[in-house]
């Protein structure tokens, strides 16, 4: 492979991993567990701290219970640093993740600024997560919640929801739930 072909392949690989990262955010926010399963290798590890650390497929199995109190999930990735070694890559991915969760005292907001420490592997021509760990750098917590989706400024706006009732599924033809 020439230097130009190798550089082009790395650009293609970078873009595939960026897509993997952003689809993870969409699938997480929409509680699309079927789609999440397609993003990890079968032997992958997911480390979400005290919430869960172990096989990614087991984490996804537990997500309905973990996400049950979540009224809003909103993951945003910013800086993406990737390094490659053939069919193996590592990534440090900065994120802002907003969670609005039901509690016995009413809804609370948790805005986390952190990073994903990722390991990726390309198998059968496809990049997927091999190991994903979340690192919290800061958190901003409001209890009770300060989110106001009833404010007149939002009147008439479509309001996002976790799950298949999110307005994106009625709007898009190409972006779908599941695989």
TrEMBL record:
It comes from the Bacteria. Residues 9-132 form the SnoaL-like domain. This is SnoaL-like domain-containing protein. It comes from Edaphosphingomonas laterariae.
């Amino acid at each position: 492979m020439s230097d130009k072909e190798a550089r082009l392949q790395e650009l293609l690989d970078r873009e595939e991993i960026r897509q993997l990262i952003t689809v993870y955010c969409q699938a997480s926010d929409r509680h699309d567990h079927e789609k999440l399963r397609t993003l990890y290798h079968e032997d992958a590890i997911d480390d979400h701290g005290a919430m869960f650390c172990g096989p990614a497929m087991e984490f996804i199995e537990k997500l309905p219970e973990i996400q049950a109190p979540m009224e809003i999930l909103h993951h945003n990735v910013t800086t993406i640093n990737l390094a490659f070694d053939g069919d193996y890559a590592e990534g440090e991915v900065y994120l802002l993740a907003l969670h609005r969760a039901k509690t016995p005292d009413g809804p609370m907001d948790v805005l986390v600024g952190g990073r994903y420490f990722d390991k990726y592997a390309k198998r059968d021509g496809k990049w997927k997560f091999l190991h994903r760990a979340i690192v919290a750098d800061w958190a901003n917590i409001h209890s009770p919640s300060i989110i106001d989706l009833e404010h007149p400024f939002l009147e008439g706006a479509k309001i996002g929801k976790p799950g298949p009732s999110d307005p994106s599924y009625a709007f898009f033809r190409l972006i779908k739930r599941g695989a």
